[in-house]
Amino acid sequence: MIYMNSKYFIFIIFLNFSGFSQDLVSPDSLSSNFLDSNLINNQNSNYNKAPLLSAILPGLGQVYNKQYWKLPVIYGGYLLIGHYIKFNNNMYKEFRGALIAQTDDNELTINPYPNFSESSLERNMEYWRRNRDLLIIFTGVYYILNIVDAHVFSHLNDFDIGNDISFSLSPKISKFGYNHNFGISLKFKF
Fold first, then answer.
1. Are 65 and 150 in contact (CB under 8 A)?
2. pTM recorded for the entire structure
3. Backbone dihedral angles phi then psi of residue 73, each to the nearest 5 degrees
């Protein structure tokens, strides 16, 4: 019984989808539609300028998009990440030096952490090194997010949000055979 209901359910889902198609006609080089489409394509090429500028210098794509308020966020993020990379690197070097002082047989080198065992010093050294390396990777991700932000906003900058856009959600009951199907109808109007 469940198998039959699932077949009907899948059939109803595919029955509700509707498709639209366009006739593709190659335009004549002298027609005005061809010139208009080329002008539109040239306008769309400006969408790629913001991410390119942001890739050259982080924040420059946001300036191109006139989002000046994002500059302190971008450079503040880089300063914060840079600070923690430096901090983790200093702690890594400190524990590495302590481990070297612990393991060499020279009495002149003094371990700054005499209460830590050799394995504890190794764990701390690896902890700070791992944190430093993850922050370096995060810097690359932050750089890519900066470029993606510039690219997305360059597209959304010209997005029209007029009054003719609507969204409606309503319950739906349909009868198929001897079964009643309950569902939700989701309608978008553009």
1. yes
2. 0.62
3. -70, -45
